[in-house]
Design a protein that fits this description.
heterodimer; A: 457 residues; alpha+beta; Porin; 3 domains; eight-stranded antiparallel beta barrel; four-stranded antiparallel sheet; 29% helix; elongated; B: 186 residues; mainly alpha; Rna Polymerase Sigma Factor, Chain: A; Arc Repressor Mutant, subunit A; 2 domains; 2 strands; 2% strand
Chain lengths: 457, 186
């Protein structure tokens, strides 16, 4: 610090001056306006709600699928048990015992039934009722079952075995109705069957997907996308058209990229739901050449006045010379978004090694930041911009809303659990990046090809 | 030393009250520092209106970010820092012009330090305000606020050598300007 600095510091460090009139009132009104602003933007809470709803939905689907699987596994047996009356007809000459004897005999039968059927089918059977029934003279030692088309051979043979046992009891005019205690899952399935989508998924589930055969319900995708992000600048009114043209001239798209992870859940043969995190960076080049960037040089000329060969005085003249020059500014602008993808995938084509799916959904923006340079709207000179700027009159928003996403996803089996993904994709921003006060709206339409890996748990 | 009382409350009590949104306390804090801070803002800008905008923006930040004041330094220092940062941000937003005034030819005839001592605060402030944008920032930060060249380079995102050379140029410009003033006066 030299002497000059010390003088300035000494005199100005604690210097005070007049305060502008009305400054405090302006500050208070701005503080009041800030207090009224919601602390968190609506979209933030909306995103959280969306995630919770999605998670709840996924959990519900998971529960339902478990029930559906149980129902599928016990489907045939359950139907037989609930809808079918197994009738055992025994020759008259073998029927000697009374009903009471039959009850005792049947009482010993459940153990057998449970042993033969329940462990194999996951169903608990019990003998609920033993009742008399009409005896058909033509059906000797025959087990008949209604809805026989849905009775698998194993169950039929099991019931035949029961019938044989019953036949061995030497009772006459006796029928056995076997009921299944599968009320809970059956009720759930009935409830969901009212939903058409669910019914479709359930039906399709019955078919085997050649690509996903033996696969798991849960998966994790990791991807990197090579993007082209086209900035769409549109004037909000006619007066901003020239400014929009100037900005379009100075800004050009560059290689952009996005990357992220997605958690997938299979909700049906063809349907999968995804959510996760996505980071995108749209890059642009700002190039500005100012041909009238003049440099002002001050030339000081000192003329000495001589008298008798000695300098007696001097005259100082100052000239300002304008040196024409050119200012070139080249800056790489960056627009960064952090999104929560909410996507659904529908399998269009599949064989045992490859599949082609359509993916669609929304990217919910969690955060947006920007950094770079653009032309100023007032004088069309370059100005810096950054998301660190907390100016309320700032150009950009802090969040950019919801962006629709669509892609075609091709998957190829690398190993039993790992697929290679190639996914041409497109995103279209619906909300302008710029604030309401800014004369231009700015949106990015992004086209990319992502490559990634899918791991199935 | 007993703490300074404003309307019967110490600065610490006023800060606590400000945190709970007490407008009276906020006004007292404003009245305590407004004059000093306006003087700071004037030094960082060329025009008074611009300084007033920075002054108001910065005070809004002071009250809305008061919970971030940790009490490590003085409260006045914290407010001053906000004023300076707001002025720097405001400067970054403005158009980028490479104001480079050729001073290579000025080799003599500029005022010595003693001339500056005779100037009052307003005149010195005007002199600093009249400096080209970049030079003004660096001169203020280095000569008056006491920042080092390293800190300035980080704050303004420039090289340390740039900070040094611009400070030297700023000093010479000030000396030339004062010399001119002095000549006119004489």
């Amino acid at each position: 610090m030299n002497q000059l600095d010390k003088i300035f510091r000494h005199k100005l460090e604690h210097h005070t001056t007049d305060v502008p009139a009305g400054a405090w009132e302006n500050i208070v009104s701005r503080l009041d306006a800030e207090d009224k602003k919601p602390k968190r933007p609506f979209l933030f809470y909306g995103s959280i709600l969306f995630v919770l709803l999605t998670a709840s939905f996924a959990f519900f689907i998971y529960e339902w699928r478990n029930s559906a699987v149980a129902e599928n596994k016990g489907k045939v047996t359950g139907h037989v048990i609930s809808n079918t009356v197994a009738t055992v007809t025994i020759p008259e000459n073998q029927t000697t015992a009374q009903n009471g004897t039959v009850d005792n005999s049947v009482a010993s039968t459940p153990g057998r039934i449970n042993t033969d059927i329940s462990p194999a089918r996951g169903i608990n059977l019990s003998t609920r009722r033993l009742a008399s029934a009409d005896l058909s003279p033509r059906q000797n030692n025959i087990l008949t079952a209604e809805n026989a088309d849905v009775v698998p051979e194993q169950n039929a043979s099991a019931l035949t075995a029961i019938a044989s046992d019953m036949a061995g009891l030497s009772h006459t005019r006796t029928a056995i109705e076997v009921a299944a205690p599968l009320e809970s899952p059956v009720k759930k399935v009935k409830f969901f069957r009212e939903l058409k989508f669910m019914t479709l998924a359930l039906k399709e589930k019955a078919a085997a997907c050649p690509f996903n055969a033996g696969g798991s319900d849960k998966s994790l995708d990791v991807y990197f996308s090579h993007d082209y992000a086209h900035s769409q600048l549109a004037p909000k009114d006619e007066s901003a058209q020239d400014y929009a043209a100037s900005r379009n001239q100075t800004e050009s798209p560059m290689y952009s990229f996005s990357a992220g992870v997605r958690f997938g859940y299979n909700v049906g043969y063809r349907w999968n739901l995804y959510t996760g995190f996505n980071y995108s960076q749209a890059n642009e080049k700002f190039e500005y050449i100012d041909p009238e960037s003049n440099q002002i040089r001050i030339i000081t000329i000192k003329d000495y006045i001589y008298e008798n060969g000695k300098i007696v005085d001097s005259v100082l003249t100052e000239e300002k010379v304008v040196v024409p020059g050119t200012t070139k500014v080249k800056v790489y602008n960056k627009y960064r978004t952090f999104d929560l993808p909410l996507l659904a995938r529908y399998t269009l084509l599949a064989n045992s090694s490859m599949s082609l799916s359509a993916v669609g959904g929304l990217y919910v923006n969690l955060a947006f930041s920007e950094k770079g340079m653009m032309l100023d709207m007032d004088n069309e000179k370059p100005v810096k911009f950054t998301s660190q700027d907390t100016d309320p009159q700032g150009i950009f928003r802090s969040q950019v809303g919801i962006t629709p996403y669509a892609s075609l996803s091709m998957a190829y089996h690398l190993t039993g659990n790992m697929d290679l993904l190639i996914e041409p994709n497109a995103r279209f921003q619906t909300k302008s990046l710029t604030s309401d006060l800014y004369p231009l709206s700015q949106r990015f339409n992004t086209f990319g090809i992502s490559t990634g890996l899918r791991y199935k748990f | 030393m007993s703490p300074l009382l404003v309307n019967g409350r110490t600065e610490k009590e006023l800060i606590k009250a400000c945190l709970s949104g007490d407008r009276l306390a906020q006004r007292d804090i404003f009245n305590m520092y407004a004059g000093k801070m306006m003087a700071v803002c004037l030094r960082y800008t060329r025009h008074r209106l611009e300084a007033e905008d920075i002054f108001q923006d910065a005070f809004v930040k002071v009250f809305s970010h008061m919970h971030e004041f940790e009490g490590g330094g003085t409260f006045e220092g914290w407010i001053r820092k906000i004023m300076i940062n707001t002025a720097i941000k405001n400067n970054k937003k403005k158009s980028v012009t490479n104001e480079d005034i050729g001073l290579d030819h000025i080799k003599e005839d500029f005022a010595g330090p003693e001339v500056f001592s005779s100037l009052n605060e307003e005149e010195l402030t005007k002199l600093v305000s009249s400096l080209p944008e970049g030079y003004r920032m660096i001169f203020n930060l280095f000569a008056i606020e006491g920042y080092t060249h390293k800190e300035i380079s980080e704050l303004l995102n420039i090289e340390e050598s740039t900070s040094r050379s611009q400070l030297a140029k700023a000093r010479r410009i000030l000396q030339v300007k004062v010399h001119e003033l002095y000549k006119v006066a004489v």
